[in-house]
Amino acid sequence: MRFLLLSLCLLGFALNPLHADPRNDMAIMAHAPSIKLGIGDRPGVLFVTLHNKSSATQLVGATSDAFERIELHTHETSADGMMRMVQVTDFALPANGKLALKPGGHHLMLFGFRGDKRDKEAAIEVTLNFANGASLSVSAQPMQRQKPSPHHGHHHMPHQGH
Description:
The protein has one helix at 2-15; strands at 28-37, 44-52, 57-63, 67-77, 83-88, 91-93, 98-101, 107-113, 124-130, 135-140, 142-144. By secondary structure, it is mainly beta.
């Protein structure tokens, strides 16, 4: 009888739909996610560092109930030496490596914020989707970008008499 019960328990555990999916085995981890909301209707941005403890894959998209759409963007230097932001289809996440989404580099653009920008306590959840079928939810309390002051970046030189 014990053998039958043990066999049934082991069979039930093996067939359990909650059994770990090899594509979602927490092989990809997120460190220090941050969300900065745009000023007015301008898009926000998400930065995070992803650590991959498995085989290579690509970050191919992201979704969130808090935004109408999310796009993958990076910065490129044009032929004339100017930096410009461009939308891309994916970011490589190397095997046993990391991918840094950061200012001036790869990042997620967050369009059409649906929440209340005054609610500083509510964390926003974003689900990252990978080419290997895995997904990872990251959560961060949004920060509101500040308008630059009128004197930001300007240096005033005293007038000298001629």
